[in-house]
Amino acid sequence: MRIEINERPVEATQGETLLTAIRRAGVRVPTLCHMEGLPPTGACRLCVVEVEGQRGLIPSCSYPVYEGMKVRTHSPRAVRARHTIVELLLSNHPDDCLYCVRNGTCELRKLAEELGVHQRRFTGLSRASRVDVSGPALTREPSKCVLCGKCVRVCEEVQGVGAIDFIGRGSATKVGPAFDEALNLSSCVLCGQCVMACPTGALHEQSHVKQVLDALRNPEMMVVVQHAPAVSVTLAEAFGLPPGRDVDGKMVAALRRLGFHRVFDTAFSADLTVMEEASELVHRIQSRGTLPMMTSCSPAWIKFVEEFYPGFTGHLSTCKSPQQMLGAILKSHYAESRGLDPAKIYSVAVMPCTAKKFEAGRPEMIHDGVSDIDAVLTTRELAELIRMHGLDLEALPPEKADDPFGGRSSAGKLFGATGGVMEAAVRTAHYLLTGKEMDVLDAVEFRGLEGIKEARVRVGDLELGLAVASGLGNARALLEQIQGGRSDLHFIEVMSCPGGCIAGGGQIIGVDPGAITARMKALYDIDARSAVRVAHRNEGVRTLYDTFLGEPLGEASHRLLHTHYTPRHVIT
Amino acid sequence: MTQAPERPNAPPCWEPPPRPITELASYLSGGNTPPGAVLNERIALLRRERLVRPAIFVGTGTCGLGAGAGRTLQAIRGHLKARHIEADLVEVGCIGLCSDEPLVDVQLPGRTRLSFRAVTEEKAAPLLDGVWAGQVKTPSLVGQFSGDGLDPWPKVPWLHDNPFFAPQTRWVLANCGLVDPSSLDETIARGGYSALHQTLRTLKPAQVCDRVERSGLRGRGGGGFPTGRKWHVARAQAASQKYLICNADEGDPGAFMDRALIEGDPHRLVEGMALAGYAIGASLGYVYIRAEYPLAIRRLAKAVDQARERGFLGRAVLGSAFDFDIRIKQGAGAFVCGEETALMNSIEGRRGMPRPRPPYPAEKGLFGKPTVINNVETLANVPGILLRGDAWFSALGTAGSKGTKVFALSGKVNRTGLVEVAMGTPLRQIVFNVGGGIPEGKAYKAVQIGGPSGGCIPSSQLDIPIDYESLKAVGAMMGSGGLVVMDEGTCMVDVAKFFMDFIQRESCGKCIPCREGTRRMLEVLESITRGRRGEKGADALQRFQGIMALNELAEVIKDSSLCGLGQSAPNPVLSTLRWFRDEYEAHIYDRRCPARVCPQLLSYSINAEACKGCALCLKKCPTDAIMGAPKSPHYIIQDKCIACGTCLTVCKSRAVLVQ
Amino acid sequence: MPTLQVILNEHPHAGRDALIPVLQQVQEAQGFLSRGAITAIGRHLGLPASKVYGVATFYNQFRFQPLGTYHIQVCRGTACHVKGSLGTLESVQRLLAIRPGGTTKDGLFSLETVACLGACGLAPVVCVNGEFFAGMTPEGLRRLLDTFRKRGTAHDPGT
Known about the structure:
heterotrimer; A: alpha/beta; Ubiquitin-like (UB roll); Alpha-Beta Plaits; Rossmann fold; 3 domains; five-stranded mixed sheet; four-stranded parallel sheet; 18 helices; 34% helix; 14% strand; globular; C: alpha+beta; Arc Repressor Mutant, subunit A; 7 helices; 4 strands; 11% strand; disordered C terminus
């Protein structure tokens, strides 16, 4: 069908919304509450346009196109409405923009600039509210909330958690956990998807930047850092470089210039995880243990099971996550073999994740008062540190990570994307069960952004039922199937964030949705180009087993690399 | 611009109720009565055209009970017992004259029915003793009803000549206050369910929609959308399940039409719903009714049960192929749930926040199914239209507004209550004839119509006829029918502030213009009613900035809000600004409140000649702003006074002056 | 009065549309919605506690504190406002030192405002434990409160 946007003809399809047609026509209409892929709520009213024959202004996000529709996106009336709406939001918004974490990435600030709001016509009474710092990873600042509802929707409709909702009504409406309690008492799993959705500084991570700086300035400390697989393919975007660029070497260089004494690669311990986890799977299958086994590297997923499905903790792999495995090795074997006092090692992890901050603080991860991991920086916090130190990432010459935990196979690197753990584990499980490598290593059936991916894979005499869930909402759906009696699955990979760690809650905010696909492609390109593509051929990992661990699932592994889970009592 | 009121051919207040169609005789309780003398006798008794013993009717609607009707009822029961008098004691709904509650009617065999006002418990026995003795002319006598074949009382005025009732045309309220709402038989005898029986046998659903569309009936809940057209859209949808919802959430402060209608004549609504369900193809109807109306809920639930038992609801309604049942859902108190999509969310167990439209409820509504939502009064009009014809209905009213409209009249007016007038009746007639004008000889200032979405109408516009378009033209709207009268002692800025305070609390909070905009508008109004004493530095500047932007803010809220409530939210300010600009200006420029309502803009002083020096005000003053020696005149220290008005309230010598 | 469990049992396999009726019944039985009740209702209906709380706080009807022995509802409808109900409300607040939604420390009085009681002809109206009091001036109200105070806590809360 044909419609007219700003006096120019535009082709449109029956059933699509006006907003899609407007964007296709190359016109930008701002939105605050719109979420790609979810039904429109029509709450923010910023996308209103003038449509011939309609009395009021029309929200383009929810209005379907019709034949002959005549639209003016920037008529004086529409622009006046948008301008006033932003003025209203600013009228009782805190004025401390210069101190705000989102200074620079704030959508409200950007809107005010775009719409030319330079004068305060309305002075609203500011809403008194407390900053909630109760959570181990996330902070809420309700006074900065514009009530767009995206955090509420992502938490419920995408993640299936529902830790927060609107409370109250009218101008007293706010967003918060049940009973308006602090976040630490709620069922929040700290995945950070709300932070990614939030247009302002109302939701952000608990920063560890200060602790890390303090450690770096402490001459008595040896500060080591590890970086997760998804970080190197994302970091570039924080510096205006196109998505999908792998800056692994430059990032290592930057970390050294920041003062970290050793730079290790979490993909190394991802390989280690594959060894342990594949062995555990084989063991469970052979010993008729609890199946399906479920991956355990996503800490928000672990918290999710402990809270909502405590009966399923036996299904979780006992393997620690790669972050915690490396942390444990560093403070034990590594320290010992180099004659270092574990208490003098400050271990930092750079993660695409907010829940990793929570994971590092779990009591199971602390021994005799020494934490395996001392601080977790999100990708965003690393970018902040790099900027703070005046480093030009693009100009840095690439460097290699340190031995003995700097080398990786590309299987470990795949941990950054949904389906990647599965693919890496299948490659090694095949080898463990048959003694042979797979003919084709690429497991394309587990690649891509689909919510649930399943396949039946032949490994020697066995046919394995494998499933990959991307995002907790999809994981919940799978768990419900199993609770309902489904029994054909052996192994399930779950990543809490839809798309996996490349779309984690600690990643760069405010990028185009296509960036996720580009980051994913970067990971698979690395894998395709890599000489070592299976975890069991990682030389460093082999050496570690030979010199210290012995064999997978052995005594040392059991002590250092495996953990346990406990049901969690929160307000669900 | 005062235009000559369009006078419709107003029919009398009450018409004799229609006779039931003969096929319904078998539905009276006690099985089939053959047509003829026995049946006619039975119907005459039910219509109270014949009585075998005295009947006493007590209005026990919520308003009656609030005025003490429950105790009156007990007193009457005790009196009858003590005197060994055999009489029917009937609880009826509200006839509408709330200011005269408790209302008690007495009818003796062969005589017309008498109506008495303000019959409190202690007055009941003497009153009845008088009636038994034939002495009915007491100060509490209101008048007598007319009745076929009944002897009138000599020299007792007709109720239909009473100034409260004379200008009314009671179609929807025909049975209210007259019948026993718990008696299905009485309803049938007065023509109830005849329309349903006939329609199921003679009309196709599309024809029902046609007739309702031709009648010109428009939604009585506020918007005024043509009912028949809405029905047609839903009827045309192919869906295995459709729903009808009756909106009885009546959230407008100052409105109680739905409550009174359901309390007084619940079967009219049940029949209207069944007819609407048949027309659109719905097999289930919900009544979404305020939980604050427990009596209405009880009476409606009973009526639904009775109708189901008698085969008027449920499978194969009245032996036809049409299935229809009704469920009652209690609202939990949210004004915004009067909005259709918010109401549906509420029934689904969600926060009552409106959804964007399209899709319209008639296409995709409750649980995603085609749904029609009509207001109580709209549905209560349907049986009449189908029984007496669309032409009968459309003959009354104005060009664009047909039939009658029920109003809840309250505020600064002598007679308050429930009123039903023909569309086109001049507003002035309601305030000054039906309502009897302003008490204490004060001057009329405005009537607020349409609740928070409506507007205030000044004296200069009082001659406009009541119809959808005329009200819109003066910046108000029909709304659901609250009419609150205001006199010279009402401050219009304060009224606007009252409504904005209501709206910003009752806004669902979803869309920004309504949530933040109404709050800002309230803050601007608060700033202009705040005294200088409390102001600091930039407050005055902010006050003026806010005033300058008020109009544009109102326009944007109207233009861009999500739902109808948001789009009409600025009306209380816009309409008072339009007609009472001088009052705003007095507040803004002169910092005074001409109606002496806004406390912070008043200054208090003590008239030394009247003050007896009792020191009561001195003791009660919360800020110790009053000084004076005992038994000598006191005075107020202006710098300390916070204008709370306590001294004015406590002074027994009327010595406190307010300016 | 039925217990929470009895009420939940009356709604087997219920979906979300049963939420508001269940909340109403529980409040009717217990006088208010306790945290325990809200989480139990959520579990029964398969809804997160945050959603149950979100719905409950949306509607005026629901309260999260026990009622006082005397539950005072001050009507804030238009007719009542025009006839001075704001002064009535302010004087209750002053006399009892509580705000709407609150309960006095001794548990004797709780206060709430209602949008409209629908008895506009009797304005300004105050309703105490379901009984209407017409034409309530601040002075009349003070006397009314004194009467109740003298009667004391002979009643159970919520009756």
